[in-house]
Structures are given as structure tokens and as C-alpha cells.
Amino acid sequence: MGVDNRAVIIVGLRRGDIDNFDALVDEDGDLMGGQLRDCSTYYDGWGQDHNVIGITVAQTPDYYNVGLELPTLLEEIETAKLDFQRLTGRAAKVYLSNEGY
Asked: How far apart are alpha carbons 95 and 9 in whole angstroms?
């Protein structure tokens, strides 16, 4: 079994900071029908309170880097913040993290 790792920019909130987290999970166990994701820093860490629940706006390939266009990234972040607010009723933060998967 291999462990992969990438960098991500994700817009959302830490799971532990979302009071109504269970309301975001649909009958299939997806977060808002797959519109949100659970970003874990560990390959087997899904469901932990320090995970970020949100919308990924950028990510690198496994153990690699990626170039970003700042104006485009800023637009994507603002769009994701609005989408997160619409889906959850909460204002989002922007997180730079690693993700194990």
C-alpha cells in the first residue's frame, strides 16, 4: 500500500468548527451531494475534527508542485466562498494544507 501526498488550497471550515455537521451529510453519506469534501492531512484520517470540510480550488499532483495564476486563483476562491456560504450558511476561510490520500 502506498501513501500519496499533495498540497491543496481549500475553502471551508474545520470540521470541529461546524456546529451542524450532520446536516451536511446526505442519505448516501456524501457531503452535500459531493459538493463538499473532507480534506485530511493523513491518508486514513477522514472524519477528524481538524480536517477541513470545503471546496478545493487548487491542488498539486502527488509529491509535486503546480503553478498558479493569482488573479484566476482569487476569483476561484471568492466563488468557492460564496458556494460554501450558500451550502452551509457559514462564512468560509481559506486553508493551505497538505492532503494524504
From this structure: 6
Q: What is the pLDDT of residue 68?
A: 93
Whole-model pTM: value is 0.86
Strand order in the sheet with 93-100: 37-39, 52-59, 5-14, 93-100
**Among all chains, which residue has been given the C-alpha cell 475553502?**
11
Full 3-state SS string of the chain: CCCCEEEEEEEEEEHHHCCCHHHHECCCCCEHHHCCEEECCCCCCCCCCCCEEEEEEEECCCCCCCCCCHHHHHHHHHHHHHHHHHHHCCCCEEEEEEEEC
